[in-house]
Every structure is written in structure tokens, then in C-alpha cells.
Amino acid sequence: RFDAETAERYLVWRQYQDPERPVMLLLGGAAGVGKTKIGLEGVNSDLATLVRTFVIVGVLSGFVYFTGVWTNPLALPAKTWIFLVLSGLATGASWVCYFRALKIGDASKVAPVDKFSLVLVAVFAVLFLHVRPSLRDWTGILLVAVGVLVLALKR
């Protein structure tokens, strides 16, 4: 269905999704904050969140289809559905809060606070999933927390 060149481009793209090579994540995240702030000018933040969600659905549908991993979602186990729905609700609430914060605040202050979720994810992973981060992992997590606190302090 695809030629060798398409497969090669896909494999290169996949390399940049590797957690050891977060270049795409960094570039996407940095570009996303600025575009989001500009896109919110004169627009209700909830409507903007809805439009962004439609774009994401379209992009992910294309990825799922073209990578050949599409299966019938109704065939997923009930437990998977429950956790995906709960995750979706949490993500939706997070996006609504983030867009509202960007609408009224400075992106340079909102984005770092949003990234503080990394610290919470690490703590929850330890408490609920019994993950054991290494000393190096905890050092990075601590640096993120300190960075957010430094940026949050009033001058």
C-alpha cells in the first residue's frame, strides 16, 4: 500500500517520538503555546478548545489509519473503555483550564505551571503504579518543580 520512501519517512518520524529523543515534543510544545495564545484573541476559550479537539481527532484518525493500527473501538475491553473515558474527561478538563488560563494570562507564566503536571505524574506513578524513578529521574523532576516555583514567584 505504501512505497519504500513513505516507509522510510515514517521510520525517521518514529525515531523522533522516542522518549530519548524529545526534539519533536519540544518543538511542538513550544510552537503550540504561541499559536494557542494568538489563536485565542477574540475567541471564547471553550470554543477554541473544541476546534482544537476536532483538529486533533482528524490528525490522529489519519495516523491510525495510515499506520494500519485501526481496529474496531467497540471491541476494546470494558476496563480499557472506562480508563480511556476517565482519561479523556481529565484531559478535556485540563485543556479547558489551560485555554482559559492562556486567554487571561501570560503564556510565559501559564505554560510553566502547566508543565508542573510532570511532578504530579511522577508522584502519582510512585503512589498508584509503584513506579520507582531513578535518582537521575528525581533530579530532573525536582529541577522542573524548582523552575516552576522560580517563575511563579513575584518579582
Description:
- The chain has helices at 4-15, 23-39, 45-66, 78-104, 107-115, 117-129, 135-152.
- It is globular, with a radius of gyration of 18 Å.
- The mean pLDDT is 80.
- The termini are far apart.
- It has 155 residues and is mainly α.
> Strand content of the residues, in percent?
under 5%
Coarse structural class? mainly alpha
Q: Cα distance, first to last residue?
A: 58 Å
Largest sheet: none
Global morphology: globular
Order of helices and strands: HHHHHHH
Average pLDDT works out at 80
Question: What is the fold's blueprint, element by element?
Answer:
Blueprint: H1 4-15, H2 23-39, H3 45-66, H4 78-104, H5 107-115, H6 117-129, H7 135-152
What is shown here, in short?
This protein is an all-alpha fold and about 160 residues long. It has seven helices and no strands. Helix 3 (about 45-65) packs across helix 4 and helix 5 runs antiparallel to helix 7.
List keywords for this structure.
single chain; 155 residues; 76% helix
